[in-house]
From TrEMBL:
Name by which UniProt lists this protein: Flavin prenyltransferase UbiX
Gene: ubiX
Lineage: Bacteria, Pseudomonadati, Pseudomonadota, Betaproteobacteria, Nitrosomonadales
Similarity remark: Belongs to the UbiX/PAD1 family.
Catalytic activity: dimethylallyl phosphate + FMNH2 = prenylated FMNH2 + phosphate
Natural source organism: Rugosibacter aromaticivorans
GO molecular function (one): carboxy-lyase activity
Amino acid sequence: MSFPPQRLVIAVSGASGSLLGLRLLQLLHRVAGWETHLVLSSAAVLTAKLELNETRETFEALATQVHSNKDIGASIASGSFRTAGMVVIPCSMNTLSSIANGASSNLITRAADVTLKERRKLVLVTREAPLNLIHLRNMTLATEAGAIIMPPVPSFYLGPCSLDDAVTQVVGRVLDQFNIDVPGIKRWQGSAQE
Ligand SMILES: Cc1cc2nc3c(=O)[nH]c(=O)nc-3n(C[C@H](O)[C@H](O)[C@H](O)COP(=O)(O)O)c2cc1C
């Protein structure tokens, strides 16, 4: 196995934007050499049904390994299981709060806690609007602990043609955090570009 291990933990929580989690799995599925460990919260399954009319199986089919959110004994619950980091996409305010305050009552929050304690990269694609003071404070706490708060804000300057395009660009920027290149990601080339 190469070092650092080409493993990414992907958690999908119940915030709006299930398509973000699905798109990340779809893009990463096509990248050779990456092992993906997926956890879905029960609220994520509901949101995916309501927003996309998709079931958990659609997400799970794209992952190398699937873990139950109740399985506190899973490999990714231990720091000895090496990974490149973790992304929570989308990240609800509930999951953000647990992570920011060190509460690890399910596998998503335990794996995030492990990611922080091992000083690995933790990207939280937080989705809520507007934000109250509790949300903002939790984002500050998570940032102070080493997480990267990365709300799914489209790069308007790149001229997305559709919501689907904007989602792909957002997910591409999340994957940039792990130095994972996927095709079709637009990049600013300077204002002199044609
Ligand atoms: C359709 C739908 C959209 C939701 N959107 C959001 C959202 O954007 N942000 C958020 O924090 N919670 C949102 N929620 C509420 C969360 O799903 C809820 O707080 C849940 O308890 C989160 O659990 P989890 O963190 O374990 O996934 C939404 C719920 C539904 C059903």
